[in-house]
Write the structure tokens for this entry.
Amino acid sequence: MIEQPGFDPSDAVDFWDLVNRQDWEACELCQASMASRAYRDGGVYAPTEAHIRRFNDFVLARLEGTGV
């Protein structure tokens, strides 16, 4: 337990660091792919991401005619 003398959280910190570095790399790879024409009209969404697509459509509708 944390309260015990000599407690060393380094294994948890090392694991957190490893997982986050892997996640960051995956995100970077996805970002690099955003130039694909598949994303030209707002992206490609899985069925479980329907809420994201609705938000994207909402934003695009508000931006129409703004020159953005």
